[in-house]
Structures are given as C-alpha cells and as structure tokens.
Amino acid sequence: MVQLSHKGFDATFAALADPTRRGVLEALAGADASISDLAGRFDMTLTGIRKHVGILEEAGLVTTQKVGRIRTCRLGARALAEEAAWIEEYRRLWAARFDGLDDVIADLQEKEAADGPHD
Fold first, then answer.
1. Cβ 62 vs Cβ 29: under 8 Å
2. Rounded CA gap, 69 and 10, in Å?
3. What is the pLDDT of residue 83?
4. How many CA atoms lie within 13 Å of 79's alpha carbon, on the beta-carbon side?
5. Strand bridging mode 33-34 / 70-75
6. Buried b (16+ CB within 10 A) or exposed e, 86-95
7. Mean pLDDT in residue range 70-99
8. What is the CATH number of the domain that holds 19?
9. Residues 10, 54: one domain?
C-alpha cells in the first residue's frame, strides 16, 4: 500500500470535501482571481470566502498574494500525486474484486443453463 503523510493527506481531503472549495479550485484552474471575485462568483461574504481559501492554502492547493488592498488567489504548486496514487491503489483493488464477482456470476449462469429450467 502507498504510504502517506497523514497530516497533509487529511488536510487535502478535508479541503476537497467541501463543494465550495472544489468550486474555487475549478475557478482558479481557469485563471487567477481576487478574493472579491471569488466571493461574487460564489455569492458569499468576503469573510466566508477567505475561510475557504485559507483551508485550501493550508492544504497547499492554493496560494495567495496581497498587493495593496487586493489579495489574488492562484492554484498552489502542490500536485495531488500522493492522493491520486492512494485512490488508484484502492480503485485497482475494487476492480479486481468486481472482476472476481463477475467470474462467480458467469459460473453460476453456466451451471444454471446446464441444469436446465427448474419448475
């Protein structure tokens, strides 16, 4: 199994658990945005969007830079390679289990067909 740094891993998944924060990441994937722009886009107060951006910053998913009165947000440099590897490992595990289940079902269907109809 993939070994992960639990603190960073937990922060990432906690950040991604919220639909507003996922929306912020999607918005920033298109272009950098100010806190005000994000607040308007998500119909939130400046304080509310700052809290979401702060959580994304703590997880390393977003960076901010303040120039004058404007705080600009952009995607962070941190990739999600560890998390993607962890998810992929479990996806493969479940795929193998479902493949095994498909085999069992096929065997049962063959036996049923060989035995003929039961009335």
1. no
2. 32
3. 87
4. 4
5. antiparallel
6. beeeeeeeee
7. 88
8. 1.10.10.10
9. yes
Q: What's the pTM? A: 0.73
DSSP E strands in 44-107: the ranges are 62-67, 70-75
Tell me which residue range forms the domain holding 95.
79-119
**Residue 101 pLDDT > 90, yes or no?**
no
Distance CA 88, CA 95 (A): 10
Tell me how crowded residue 98 is: count the other CB atoms within 10 A of its CB: 10
pLDDT range class, residue 49, cuts 50, 70, 90: very high
Let me know: does 66 contact 36? Beta carbons within 8 Å.
no
Per-residue CA distances from 33 to 12, 24, 57, 76 (Å):
21, 9, 14, 13
